[in-house]
Amino acid sequence: MDRVVGNIKLANQVVTIKNVEKELSAENTEQNTTLNRYNLEAKKVKEATLLEAKKA
Questions:
Q1: Which residue in 27, 36, 15 sits closest to 7, CA to CA?
Q2: What is the domain count for the chain?
Q3: pTM value > 0.85
């Protein structure tokens, strides 16, 4: 009986770990999306600044 209880606990831990991994993966994806958006905005600002500097 102890072995069954131990197996159930282990199975629950595995499920918990998988759920945490999914959450972290989703957060990572969201952070990467945000970072890419900031990088794109920075690139646009840089290009606009260089264009303005060339006009002056």
A1: 15
A2: 1
A3: no
